[in-house]
TrEMBL record:
Reaction it catalyzes: [thioredoxin]-disulfide + sulfite + AMP + 2 H(+) = adenosine 5'-phosphosulfate + [thioredoxin]-dithiol
Broad class of where this protein is predominantly found: cytoplasm
Organism of this sequence: Nitrosomonas nitrosa
Keyword Metal-binding in record: yes
Annotated compartments: Cytoplasm
Cofactor(s) named in the record: [4Fe-4S] cluster
Molecular functions per Gene Ontology: 4 iron, 4 sulfur cluster binding; adenylyl-sulfate reductase (thioredoxin) activity; metal ion binding; phosphoadenylyl-sulfate reductase (thioredoxin) activity
Transport among keywords: no
Protein known as: Adenosine 5'-phosphosulfate reductase
Amino acid sequence: MNQLDITPKVEQLHDLLKLIERDYMPAVLANSLGAEDMVLTDLIARYYPAIAMFTLDTGRLPQETYDLMQTVRDRYGVDIHVYFPDAAAIEDYVAQNGPNGFYQSVELRKRCCFIRKVEPLRRALAGKRAWITGMRREQAVTRDSLTISSFDVENNLQKFNPLCEWSNAEVWAYLKQHDVPYNKLHDRFYPSIGCAPCTRAVTPGEDVRSGRWWWENPESKECGLHIGKVASIK
Ligand code: SF4
């Protein structure tokens, strides 16, 4: 079988990361350790170490995600700064709604995501000039207008989605060709991985993000990290 040629797209990635390192520092990769983020982790760790990385530990991540966090640290020798939710906010939420209150309604699910993800994200982005994500346009209906670069009005910094136009096959071609570590849940039909209680395996042919918050409508399935107002420059 012919190997997928991703050379032009990798060169474009280098160009963009160089530009970010030159013109948008301090910049950070919001690293959820998904397959796309591992492409960016590999490139940034090896070629653009001035770009920082952080991850959000919601307290409900699968063990496989923590395993990968440790593997990245050991293999690349890079520090992925870990942000945690505000402990008092979590205690209040659990006292009022129970540990799994997010299954009860979209509102309670979004409130949990706000406490465990959105508020820590704001702290992680404070004082930065740019953030980088591994989002791709074809991942979900909520992402079909995604652009490579836009101004994130809500967080007041530039937002880059360098893999915006990549396909799933191209992401995996990169990981395989460069022997990049990845989350073992991907081998068990989890194409998109978030918190353990809100992520499940999908069946072949299903939407990539259909295993996330599977009990909700596709239009509401974002955690709030990526729904801020943006002004596109692409
Ligand atoms: Fe809470 Fe689920 Fe959102 Fe994680 S994905 S923050 S557990 S609602």
